[in-house]
């Protein structure tokens, strides 16, 4: 079994992205792919509706392979309604926060509280960059503050925080924060380091597709981990965190 908890379809390339994801699912025998739609950095209500609708269409076309995140911009006035529609009408499995606001901005709090009610995870883009950090791009410290405020929330910090040696230290002590390895390209030892810091039970497999699937899979396969630990990362932890029962 293999579960990719972090993939995308991009505005303007929906059909191409769907085809690429399904091709990868066949080629690498992926059991499930969790996707969100992305476009502009600061999407308005119309763009958010379009992106979530396209994800819903893909979910309906391939319910055997595709699960969806409800993408929200917390600064849009209708963000709570968007989340409710995504979960209750579209059947989405989690909420996605990208770079429209810091994840610990007060505008996010009502959304997190709703996710707690729904018993579903929140996927948060977090990236620590040397240059070109976006204005509202969350860091591990932002994720940690949110986790401290809402210990009952199920939080996934994407990309190992963009720099695991910075991001993982921030969230290490918060048991409600998981991390995914998507987008953490070409650094062989990051997964081993992360396991030593937080254990394999809080690490999820993701690729940021449309991107390099094999690089992320290779990070797991080449890590100094047991078969059981790799199984946790590749699918076991995802089964647990997405279980809303």
Structure description:
The chain has 245 residues and is α/β, with parallel strands linked by helices. It has one domain (3-241): Metal-dependent hydrolases (TIM Barrel), CATH 3.20.20. Helices cover 42% and strands 15% of the residues. An 8-stranded parallel β-sheet has the order 1-2-3-4-5-6-7-8. The mean pLDDT is 95.
Core attributes:
single chain; 245 residues; TIM Barrel; eight-stranded parallel β-sheet; 8 strands; 42% helix; 15% strand
Query: How many structural domains in the coordinates?
Result: 1
CATH superfamily name?
Answer: Metal-dependent hydrolases
The total count of strands amounts to 8
Briefly note the structural class of the backbone.
Answer: alpha/beta
> Regarding quaternary structure, how should these chains be classified?
single chain
Number of helices: 9
SSE topology string? EHEHEHEHEHEHEHEHH
Strand content: 15-25%
Task: State the CATH topology.
Answer: TIM Barrel
Measured distance between first and last alpha carbons: 21 Å
As residue ranges, the low-confidence spans are: none
Q: State the shape.
A: globular
Give the CATH class.
Alpha Beta
Largest sheet, in brief, is: 8 strands, parallel
The CATH architecture is Alpha-Beta Barrel
The strand line-up of the biggest sheet is 1-2-3-4-5-6-7-8
Helix content: 40-55%
Secondary structure blueprint with pairings:
Blueprint: E1 3-10, H1 14-27, E2 32-38, H2 45-61, E3 66-71, H3 79-88, E4 94-97, H4 109-118, E5 122-124, H5 140-149, E6 155-157, H6 164-171, E7 177-180, H7 190-198, E8 203-204, H8 213-221, H9 227-241
Helix pairs in contact: 3-4, 5-6, 6-7
């Amino acid at each position: 079994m293999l579960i990719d908890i972090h993939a995308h379809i991009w505005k303007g390339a929906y059909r191409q992205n769907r085809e690429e994801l399904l091709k990868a699912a066949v080629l690498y025998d992926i059991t499930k792919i969790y996707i969100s739609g992305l476009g502009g950095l600061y999407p308005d209500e119309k763009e958010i509706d379009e992106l979530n609708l396209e994800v819903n269409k893909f979910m309906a076309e391939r319910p055997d392979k595709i699960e969806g995140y409800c993408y929200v911009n917390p600064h849009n006035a209708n963000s709570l309604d968007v989340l409710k529609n995504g979960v209750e009408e579209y059947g989405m499995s989690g909420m996605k926060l990208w770079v429209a606001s810091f994840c610990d901005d007060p505008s996010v709090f009502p959304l997190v509280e709703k996710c707690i009610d729904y018993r579903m995870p929140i996927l948060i883009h977090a990236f620590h960059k040397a240059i070109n950090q976006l204005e509202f791009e969350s860091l591990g410290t932002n994720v940690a503050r949110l986790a401290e405020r809402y210990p009952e929330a199920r939080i996934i910090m994407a990309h190992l925080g963009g720099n695991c040696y910075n991001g993982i230290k921030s969230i290490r002590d918060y048991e409600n924060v998981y991390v995914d390895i998507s987008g953490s390209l070409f650094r062989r030892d990051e997964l081993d380091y992360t396991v030593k810091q937080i254990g394999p039970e809080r690490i999820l497999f993701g690729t940021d597709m449309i991107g390099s699937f094999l690089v992320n899979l290779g990070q797991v396969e080449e890590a100094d981990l047991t078969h059981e630990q790799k199984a946790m990362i590749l699918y076991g932890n995802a089964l647990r965190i997405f279980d809303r029962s």
